[in-house]
Amino acid sequence: MTGDITSSGGNLEATAGDISAPTGTISGSTMQVGAGELQLTVQTLNAVIENTTQDNDILFRINDGGTTANIMTIDASESRVIIDGEGQVKKANVITLGATPISYATHAGAYLSVSLDPIQLPAISSVGEQYVLVNNSGGPLTLSPTGADTIVGSTTLSNQSAMTVFALTSSDWFVIG
Questions:
Q1: Least enclosed by CB within 10 Å: which of 10, 33, 38, 125?
Q2: 35 closest CA partner among 43, 25, 26, 48
Q3: How far is the C-alpha of 107 from the C-alpha of 17, rounded, in Å?
Q4: Dihedrals φ, ψ of 59, to 5°?
Q5: Rounded to whole angstroms, how far apart are CA atoms 147 and 53?
Q6: How many angstroms separate the CA atoms of 166 and 151, rounded?
Q7: What residues contact 91, with CB distance under 8 A and at least 6 apart?
Q8: Looking at residue 134, which CATH number applies to its domain?
Q9: Do residues 174 and 152 make contact, with C-beta atoms less than 8 angstroms apart?
Q10: 118: closest CA among 157, 81, 154, 83?
C-alpha cells in the first residue's frame, strides 16, 4: 500500500494512494475484484458494474431457505437478462418474414412483419411460445394452423394492424388483437 489510511467516525479513508489485497484493488473511483474480472467504477456520475472478461456473465444470487439460487443473470454472450431462470428482458426484435416459414427457434418472441397470405403458423413446439404479427402488406392476411393445431380467435389480420398469437396448450393457438 502507498499513501495513508485514516479512520474518522468508523470509516476508513485512503489518501494519496491505492489499497491492494490478494483478491482485488481500490484506486480512485475504481474497485476491482479478483484479477479485475469484476470492476465497479464511477464514470461521469454514473455507477458502472462491469465484468471485464469477454462473454462472461454477471450473476445475482440469493440464499432461499438455505439453498443458493440465481435470481438474475446478465448473459454477456447472448446480450440478454434472464430473471429467475425463465423470464428474459431484451430489446424488441423486428423480423421481416417474406417467404421464410415461421419457426420457434428463430422467431418466437419477435415482432414479425408479414406480407404473404396465408400466414402459416408452425406446429406448436412449446406451450407459451408466442409471435407478434404485424401486417403492412396493403391488404388483409389469413392465419393458417399446421397439422392438427387449431386457432381460437380471429384468423384475419387486417392491414396496418397487429395481433399476438400464443400457444395456450400443445394444440391450441390463441389470438389476441
A1: 10
A2: 25
A3: 53
A4: -110, 140
A5: 47
A6: 10
A7: none
A8: 2.60.120
A9: yes
A10: 157
The parent domain of residue 170 ranges over: 94-176
Instruction: Determine phi and psi for 13, rounding to 5 degrees.
Output: -130, 135
- Is residue 114 domain-shared with residue 83, that is, in the same domain? no
172 plus 100 within the same structural domain:
yes
- Confidence band for 5, pLDDT divided at 50, 70 and 90: low
For residue 26, give the C-alpha cell.
481500490
| Residue 135 burial (10 A CB sphere; 0-12, 13-18, 19+) | buried
Biggest CA–CA distance in the chain, Å, is 76
Taking all residues of the chain, what is their mean pLDDT, rounded to a whole number? 83
Nearest residue to 142 (alpha-carbon basis) of 124, 165, 120, 161:
120
Strand partners, 32: 25, 39
Beta sheet of 156-157, edge-to-edge order: 119-120, 141-144, 156-157
* Predicted local confidence at residue 32, as pLDDT: 82
Query: At 106, is the secondary structure helix, strand, or coil?
Result: helix
Beta-ladder partners of 123:
none
**Gyration radius of the chain over CA positions:** 25
Q: How many domains does the chain have?
A: 3
